[in-house]
């Protein structure tokens, strides 16, 4: 009993490389080496992250009449030192009793040839006349044969058995069991999948792809950076550009002068005092800001109904340029909608929830009215806000900071502390404090055209003098009471005078900083830039991008309607399935991993009808025309996909297939897409899926299936299936099987039972149940030496390999091309190369 070990850490994963020279000859010849073909095939057939693959097994499909013509491809295949090849030659005999001619490479010890004379096959038992079976003209048994040979364990057994036969060639026959899942379980899974797919739940709040995100967030100007357009849309020499520059420069100069005046030495010097007063400069800048605001309001209001000749003349006068952003239009909008919708299908999101999000997107993208923009202008820069700058706050002349008051008290106290100089020192302290206050008043930045000592400054001067007087009196009294030691008094006098001389500069700095905060020039600058940004957004989003925004709104709205219609169609389909359950017994939970079986046996294919194509079981791959099935099944030891996930994936693929022709229509003419609707595309796909499930079951990928979809694994088939598999495995080689040749070709086969090789196989997942069933039948020991447990696949059964009669094969001698012709059989004594291609 053969049982290949499951690959583990560091063990190469076995893989059979499948090459169809009938359609891929040019691909093989175009590759640098055949190893590149093996690598490319392995990347698509093994799980992500697999690092080590044993790819020396090669299964080649070829036509009988092209074997010799393809000799150069066989040279490449056999160039690898360790290649093991099984060639399936398909076609009628080339010449009477000569079944085929083949290149000498296929006569080696590591090569075997299987001849398939007719892909429809003939139901036949050796020693008996073939029966009459009404096989459909389109029946094709080649796909299941390739699926079986793609299992490494079966490949090795076939290669070993056929190479022991004369000329290493055999004709295959087979009886296989194909696992199927109960129809009611599939229907229940389909209903659950529709509920998930058509619902409003499961939406993902993720950013929309560009340019939809920029259009929805009114960041149209940002698209210019990504598309290479011109971002600025206001000419510097226009009325708007000139006013904006004047206002910005006015506020900027005022801020710079305040920064200079905040230095303590500015109280005594001329820094920051050139030109007009600061408050006047701020008022001038505010006046320009007001004019700029009014002009912006008038401009955005004019664009509400588009621009006629007068409107465009107005734009030219104020200096507004409407740019034409490259790369934006129906194509980019439709591509963004496709990207987001395809991702939503794959997640999957509920179709109704996605449709609602698309309608919200359309509402956000709809261009705003001119009145709304004018309202934004008033909110950004109101009359009340401008009044703050048209009449700036006066320089603060109130009582000083608490720190300054404390400094005055300390300075006056120290100055009067020396008893010998107390009264004089106290008087000097009061005079210095009063002079500092008068100097701050006289040097205030907003004094232009006003009195040197305004009435509002008198409280500050009086308070300063009183504070200094209090400190001096306290110093005189403390000096007389304490009588400080010699040297302390003069030192206190010097320190006090120093404090009194420094305080006016510090007081000046604090007052300038306070005034700067009250003025709030930063808010004025932000308002100016906000108006400019509003103008730019309006020009880009409402004017320049008006066309793309309308395109996006139309397409998003139509797409939302198509998704709603698709959800309704899916829901109606699920309702029809629910009505089928009337009077039916409940099937197993579609989310469970263990499935029952359905279907009826047909000749050669127990449990399923003959394959119409080459869909593998367990990998979800969908073979291209002419491409044989890739290896079946998940990694050895792994469980298959749940039925619910598989059906949900199929319905997602159905949506992709139905919407494929709608994307180009949505891009070209959304109105036509809306009139056409989703029903003409989705209904046929759903009908095709229903027919596919009825004929092929859920294990095979539907005709619209995409790569990468995992499918339920035959390893989950237990119970009753085990008995049927055991019965099939126990059939003798002389039992009636589907021989893959026409009835008139049976005479070319060697019918002697002792020459027959049988390969019995079943998936490893059913091994415990099948072993138990074989023991009950007492057939385990009889077939033990022929039974192979495969790591994947969805079939179990028997391959019967019969040798061909002597003389049926001609290992063609390959001559060099010469003037007499190339590769001509029986061409005399031209140079012969021992059967190997030159």
How are the secondary structure elements laid out?
Blueprint lengths: L1 E2 L9 E8 H10 L3 H10 L9 E11 L7 H8 L5 E7 L9 E3 L8 E6 L5 E3 L17 H8 L2 H11 L6 E10 L4 H16 L13 H5 L3 H8 L11 H23 L16 H25 L6 H10 L11 H17 L4 H15 L4 H11 L2 H8 L11 H14 L6 H21 L15 H25 L5 H32 L1 H24 L1 H34 L25 E2 L36 H26 L1 H7 L2 H18 L23 H10 L7 E3 L17 E7 L3 H11 L2 H4 L3 E4 L4 E9 L5 E3 L27
Parallel strand pairs: 1-12, 2-3, 3-4, 4-6, 5-14, 6-8, 8-9, 11-12
Antiparallel strand pairs: 7-10, 8-10, 8-13, 11-13
Helix pairs in contact: 6-21, 6-22, 9-10, 9-20, 10-14, 10-15, 10-20, 12-21, 12-22, 13-21, 14-20, 16-17, 16-18, 16-19, 17-18, 17-19, 21-23, 21-24, 22-23, 22-24, 25-26
Mind explaining what this structure looks like?
This protein is α/β, with parallel strands linked by helices and 838 residues long. Strands 1, 2, 3, 4, 6, 7, 8, 9, 10, 11, 12 and 13 form a twelve-stranded mixed sheet that branches. Helices cover 49% and strands 9% of the residues. The C terminus is likely disordered.
Helix/strand/pairing category? alpha/beta
| Helix count, DSSP H or I runs of 4 or more residues | 27
From the N-terminal CA to the C-terminal CA, the straight-line distance is 42 Å
Taking Cα atoms only, what radius of gyration do you get, to the nearest Å?
Answer: 46 Å
What is the general shape?
A: elongated
The largest pleated sheet is described as: 12 strands, mixed
Q: What is the arithmetic mean of pLDDT? A: 77
Helix fraction by DSSP (H/I, runs of at least 4):
40-55%
> Could you tell me the strand content as a percent range?
5-15%
pLDDT < 50 runs, ≥5 residues: 5-9, 220-231, 584-640, 713-719, 814-838
Q: What's the β-strand tally?
A: 14
């Amino acid at each position: 009993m053969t049982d290949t070990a499951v690959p583990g850490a560091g063990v190469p994963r076995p893989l059979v490389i499948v090459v169809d020279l009938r359609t891929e000859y040019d691909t093989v010849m175009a590759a640098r080496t055949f190893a590149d073909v093996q690598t490319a095939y392995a990347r698509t057939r093994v799980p992500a992250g697999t690092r080590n693959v044993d790819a020396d097994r090669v299964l080649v499909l070829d036509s009988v009449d092209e074997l010799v013509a393809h000799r150069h491809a066989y040279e490449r295949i056999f160039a690898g030192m360790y290649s093991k090849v099984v060639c399936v030659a398909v076609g009628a005999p080339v010449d009477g009793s000569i079944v085929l001619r083949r290149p000498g490479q296929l006569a080696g010890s590591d090569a075997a040839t299987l001849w398939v004379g007719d892909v429809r096959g003939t139901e036949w038992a050796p020693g008996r006349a073939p029966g009459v079976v009404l096989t459909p003209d389109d029946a094709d048994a080649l796909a299941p044969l390739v699926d079986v040979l793609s299992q490494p364990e079966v490949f090795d057994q076939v290669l070993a058995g056929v190479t022991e036969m004369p000329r290493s060639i055999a004709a295959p026959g087979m009886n296989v069991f194909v696992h199927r899942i109960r129809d009611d379980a599939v229907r229940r899974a389909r209903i659950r999948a529709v509920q998930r797919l058509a619902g409003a739940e499961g939406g993902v709040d993720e950013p929309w792809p560009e340019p939809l995100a920029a259009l929805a967030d009114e960041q149209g100007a940002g698209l210019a950076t990504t598309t290479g357009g011109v971002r600025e849309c206001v000419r510097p020499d226009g009325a708007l550009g000139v006013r904006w520059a004047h206002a910005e420069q006015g506020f900027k100069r005022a801020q710079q002068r305040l920064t200079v005046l905040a230095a303590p030495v500015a109280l005594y010097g001329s820094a920051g005092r050139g030109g007009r007063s600061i408050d006047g400069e701020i008022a001038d800048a505010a006046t320009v800001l007001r004019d700029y605001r009014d002009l912006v309001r008038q401009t955005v209001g004019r664009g509400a109904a588009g621009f006629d000749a007068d409107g465009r003349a107005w734009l030219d006068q104020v200096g507004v340029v409407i740019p034409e952003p490259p790369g934006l239009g129906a194509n980019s909008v439709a591509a963004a909608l496709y990207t987001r919708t395809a991702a939503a299908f794959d997640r999957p999101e509920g179709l109704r929830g996605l449709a609602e999000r698309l309608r919200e997107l359309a509402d956000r993208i709809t261009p705003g009215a001119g009145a709304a923009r004018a309202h934004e202008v008033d909110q950004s820069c109101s009359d009340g806000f401008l009044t703050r700058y048209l009449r700036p706050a006066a320089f603060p002349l109130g009582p000083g900071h608490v720190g300054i008051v404390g400094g005055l008290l300390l300075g006056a106290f120290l100055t009067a502390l020396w008893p010998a100089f107390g009264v004089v020192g106290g008087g000097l302290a009061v005079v210095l404090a009063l002079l500092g206050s008068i100097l701050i008043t006289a040097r205030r930045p907003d004094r232009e055209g006003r009195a040197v000592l305004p009435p509002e400054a008198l409280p500050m001067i009086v308070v300063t003098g009183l504070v200094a007087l209090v400190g001096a009196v306290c110093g005189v009294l403390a000096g007389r009471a304490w009588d400080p030691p010699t040297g302390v008094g003069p030192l206190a006098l010097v320190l006090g005078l120093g404090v009194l001389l420094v305080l006016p500069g510090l007081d000046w700095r604090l007052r300038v900083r306070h005034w700067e905060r009250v003025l709030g020039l930063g808010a004025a600058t932000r308002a100016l830039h906000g108006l400019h940004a509003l103008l730019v957004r309006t020009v880009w989003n409402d004017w320049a991008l008006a066309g793309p925004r309308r395109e996006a709104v139309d397409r998003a709205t139509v797409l939302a309607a198509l998704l709603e219609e698709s959800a309704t169609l899916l829901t109606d389909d699920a309702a029809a399935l629910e009505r089928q359950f009337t009077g039916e017994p409940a099937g197993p939970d579609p989310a469970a991993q263990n499935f029952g079986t359905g279907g009826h046996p047909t000749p050669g294919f127990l449990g399923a009808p003959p394959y119409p194509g080459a869909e593998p079981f367990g990998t979800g791959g969908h073979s291209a025309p002419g491409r044989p099935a890739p290896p079946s099944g998940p990694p050895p030891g792994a469980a298959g996909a749940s039925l619910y996930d598989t059906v949900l994936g199929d319905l997602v693929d159905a949506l992709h297939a139905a919407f494929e022709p709608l994307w180009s229509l949505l891009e070209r003419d959304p109105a036509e897409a809306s009139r056409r609707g989703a029903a003409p595309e989705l209904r046929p796909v759903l009908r095709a899926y229903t027919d596919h499930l009825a004929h092929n079951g859920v294990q095979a990928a539907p005709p619209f299936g995409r790569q990468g979809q995992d499918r339920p694994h035959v390893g989950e088939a237990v119970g009753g299936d085990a008995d049927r598999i055991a019965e099939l495995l126990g059939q003798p080689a002389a039992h009636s099987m589907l021989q893959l040749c026409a009835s008139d070709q049976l005479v070319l086969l060697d019918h002697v039972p002792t020459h027959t090789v049988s390969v019995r196989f079943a998936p490893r997942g059913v091994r415990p149940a099948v072993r138990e069933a074989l023991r009950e039948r007492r057939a385990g020991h009889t077939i033990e030496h022929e039974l192979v447990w495969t790591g994947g696949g969805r079939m179990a059964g028997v391959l019967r390999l019969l040798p061909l009669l002597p003389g049926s094969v001609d290992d063609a001698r390959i001559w060099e091309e010469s003037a007499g012709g190339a590769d001509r059989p029986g061409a005399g004594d031209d140079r012969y190369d021992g059967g190997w291609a030159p």
